[in-house]
Design brief:
mainly beta; Immunoglobulin-like; 5-stranded mixed beta sheet; 4-stranded mixed beta sheet; Cupredoxin; lipoprotein
């Protein structure tokens, strides 16, 4: 029973400390433009522990500007373990998300809407 309890406590600690979204003040602001040509910049270098405000602006219509559809425009998705996404960014619109960079390594960001059609992919390097 004690082993199960310790396992649950360990899992809970990992789960609770693994959250990357935050309301803390940003240490770094990263402005990104996304278009059918890709992301600018497409390589981002950060330090582990940084609180980062990503501001993503769509400079074209992406997969389309029919806002009655479920998916339109562009998005910004950082693959797991971060696993966060800004969706449906309209041409000329900027959306933002604030994250604490707790995992070191290389992480892909992409637009799942466009990835099979346009070269929308980049890498975040956390050291």
């Amino acid at each position: 029973m004690r082993k199960i309890f310790l396992t649950l406590v360990s899992f809970s600690f990992i789960f609770l400390t693994g959250c990357t979204k935050t309301e803390d003040q940003p240490d770094v602001i990263v402005d990104i433009e996304v278009s059918k040509e890709g992301y600018r910049p497409d390589k981002i270098y950060l330090n582990r522990g940084d609180v980062v405000l990503f501001r993503v602006k769509a400079v074209d219509e992406g997969i389309g500007d029919d806002y009655s559809q479920e998916y339109y425009g562009h998005c910004f998705y950082i693959l797991p373990p971060y696993d966060v996404m800004l969706e449906n960014i309209k041409k000329g619109e900027t959306k933002q998300i604030k994250l604490k960079m707790i995992y070191p390594g290389e992480f892909i960001f992409t637009c799942p809407y466009c990835s099979g059609v346009f070269p929308t992919k980049g890498t975040i390097y956390v050291r």
